[in-house]
Design brief:
The structure is a homodimer.
Chain A lengths: L9 H19 L9 E5 L5 H9 L4 E6 L2 H13 L5 E5 L12 E7 L8 H11 E11 L6 E3 L3 H16 L10 H7 L3 E13 L3 H17 L2 H6 L5 H13 L6 E12 L1
Parallel strand pairs in A: 1-2, 1-4, 2-3, 4-5
Antiparallel strand pairs in A: 5-8, 6-8, 7-8
Helix pairs in contact in A: 1-2, 1-7, 5-9
């Protein structure tokens, strides 16, 4: 498993929670499973999506796994704080799943494949533990889908550091556009992928705050250390880039980013 | 007025008609005006959008203007061929409108601002001929919103030629993301901008054909001459780029492009 590009800091935990709150409706309005369904959440991290998944599906039986014990600890607290009782946690690796074949009705994977060296292999493994007639849901971002106004040269340079740091760590932050061929290539059927675009201008102050200022800019800032240490960018350029990104949050600015949600059957 | 970047060839006329057919629902499902409304279409070109506008609003009184007599001629034929009778054509420049102030209920502008050196000034002029309480609708693309899979280096280079040729001709093919500040800055009120994203994968054969193969690739090929003559790109790179763009139309390919539709009041 690739080391998680965004790190495991407190600020990162906050960012993930903020992100989940802001994007909840856009990404999850249709993440609905029937009562009693056995759902595997693969790569739950600190539980930001787990909470949404469980609240939206209070009568589903959710099993959430992650490789990181630290993250699982936070996920447990997160779930407890929200008085959720239909989730069990398990430390496990997607590539070595400790489940019998065909043991889940549905599999749910959110913001995980982008961090894996071999997402196709991960999907194949997940398919094995899925019952025939079951579904897989995959949600991923695509950093190449991002553009904004004004679009300063340094802001673009800082943004590209995010893509490159992830590439250095063998992840793929451009994976959203690739969901369709990935799911198809892993043998799933009835593959359907939808873009879920976030468009922000100053008529939507909650997205200016929740998405640009509290999700996107902190995410970029999260790779500052790696970007500077590996000399991808000069500190002066970096600082100017971050300042320019803040301009997109002004009344004359706009910001676009697209997530992709894929669903397929077995 | 800037010279029209795509030229005025027969193939271009076909491309515009194809584009309009494919994107009609996405862009125009809500382009609806009340019976009797006086609508100004500014920059009608060969009438590709005029036909849609008139068909969707058979009881509106549409005035369509363009600077090019040649284009107007084709627009007239286009409208006649479709048995449309609620459109009158006029040769006129957006920057020197031959209308009294406040003479239209609605103004409609589609794929025009991107070709102008001063889109903000154009909006201000259009605002003058709009009645108080009237609306303006503006639809534009954004070439920076385009990404695809697989994303070959040469395909990106060819695509960037399209952006650069338009920039050389003093247009702005990245204008979609800018609609909100442009409309706001020109004094319109209640500005609302929505992205209209086209996502294509092989589960949508009609978009693979109508959008990737018949709209996007011909549009890129339309700047080949200028790109090669101004030595933006080598012919070998160009040809490889076009071949790579065709790969996005295969079963394993995907393609994304976003239009923006803005509406505002006076």
């Amino acid at each position: 498993m690739t080391k998680y590009v965004h790190g495991y800091s407190e600020r990162e935990a906050l960012r993930l929670a903020e992100q989940a709150d802001t994007l909840e409706e856009l990404l999850h309005y249709d993440t609905i499973y029937p009562p009693g369904a056995k759902v595997l959440e693969a790569g739950c991290g600190i539980g930001a999506q787990t909470v949404i998944l469980a609240k939206k599906n209070p009568r589903a039986e959710i099993t959430s796994i992650d490789v990181s014990l630290d993250s699982l600890e936070k996920a447990r607290e997160n779930v407890k704080r929200n008085s959720i009782e239909n989730v069990r946690f398990l430390q496990a690796d997607i590539f070595y799943l400790p489940f019998e074949e065909e043991s889940f009705d549905h599999v749910f994977v959110c913001f995980v494949l982008e961090h894996l060296q071999n997402p196709s292999e991960a999907l194949t493994r997940l398919k094995k533990v899925l019952k025939p007639g079951g579904t897989i849901t995959v949600i991923e971002g695509d950093h190449g889908s991002c553009y904004f106004y004004p679009e300063g040269e340094e802001a673009l340079a800082a943004w590209n550091c995010l893509i490159r740091v992830q590439a250095v760590m063998r992840g793929n932050s451009l994976i959203g556009r690739q969901l369709y061929p990935l799911l198809l290539g892993s043998g799933f059927s009835e593959v359907k992928v939808e873009p879920r675009m976030v468009y922000v201008d100053s008529s939507k102050p909650e997205l200016v705050d929740g998405f640009i200022l509290k999700t996107i800019i902190p995410m970029v800032e999260g790779v500052k250390k790696q970007a500077l240490e590996t000399q991808m960018i000069k500190e002066e350029t970096w600082n100017k880039g971050i300042a320019e990104l803040h301009e997109t949050a002004r009344p004359t600015g706009t910001f676009c980013y697209t997530f992709f949600k894929g669903r397929a059957g077995k």
